[in-house]
Amino acid sequence: MLLDFIGGAVLIAVILIDLSTLIAALTGTQRARYVVTAIAGLWVGAAIAVASAGALATNYGSKVPLIGVLGFGPLVVFAGVALLSPTARSRMLAIPMPTLIGLNIARGLGVFFLLLAAADRLGGPFPQFAGWGDIITSLDAILLVAMLARGKATAGWIVAWNVFGALDLVVATTLALFSLNGTPFQLIHVGAGSDAILHLPWSLIPTVLVPVYLLTHGIMFGQLRQKVAVRDIGGDAAGMPSTA
User: Fold this and answer.
1) Which pick of 90, 103, 104, 158 has the fewest CB atoms within 10 Å?
2) HEC letters along 182-211
3) 59-70: buried (b, 16+ CB within 10 Å) or exposed (e) per residue?
């Protein structure tokens, strides 16, 4: 379908932009960036290969669904690395906050959830919450980046946006899980449910993009908690208020 073709092209472009931007923003040696790039490439390749083989659609009802492994596995790995390696943690926290916020502008692609719902390929509350939540997060990210550029952003605005953006992903993921037809954990029985996310190109959202955006929010929570980059936000904005 045309929607799948357009969606696939857009999702691949966003994935490439997001991952390349994050990797370029990491401090450290070029060798370390190559290692992170290789790991990211293997992860995306695995997500595409597993979905192409139809494994997500046939495995989602098991006790250890592959969509959960691909979606949350990278987050567990990054969290473990950050906890065990002070160097890796400091490099993650050194990523400029405007970069982390700016990446979330691409979440305007949440409009695809609404289009899939209009085509009866998604049903129930999942596409509405996921679609509008991402669109609001994207629009607010644009506003926040503009405020940062003018030195008008406050720590309160940043915290509020970060909490909303993270909760949007958590709520959408939960609704998607409860809307998968024929699974033991299905609580919402409405039409197509969330089955479309088990197939390419839409499977790239829960298996790649959701973890990437949760990672940006997690890094920002770390920065805000340590008051890192709040006073140095945007590089020169030394007048940013404390989060205290």
Assistant:
1) 90
2) CCCCCCCCCCCCCHHHHCCCCCHHHHHHHH
3) bbeeeebbbbeb
What is the domain partition of the chain in residue ranges?
A: 2-225
Q: Model confidence over 129-155: pLDDT tens digits?
A: 999 999 999 999 999 999 988 888 888
Among 68, 94, 90, smallest CA distance to 81 is for 90
pLDDT at 229: 43
DSSP 117-134: HHTTSS-SHHHHHHHHHH
How confident is the model at residue 244, as a pLDDT? 38
Q: What pLDDT score does 6 carry?
A: 94
Does residue 60 carry a pLDDT above 80? no
| Residue where the block lists tokens 């700016």 | 102
Within the chain, where are the H helices? 2-25, 30-52, 55-59, 66-84, 86-93, 97-103, 111-118, 125-149, 155-178, 204, 210-225
- Cis peptide preceding 206, ω within 30 of 0: no
Angle (CA) 162-67-97 rounded to 5° is 20
Here the tokens at position 80 are 């473990």
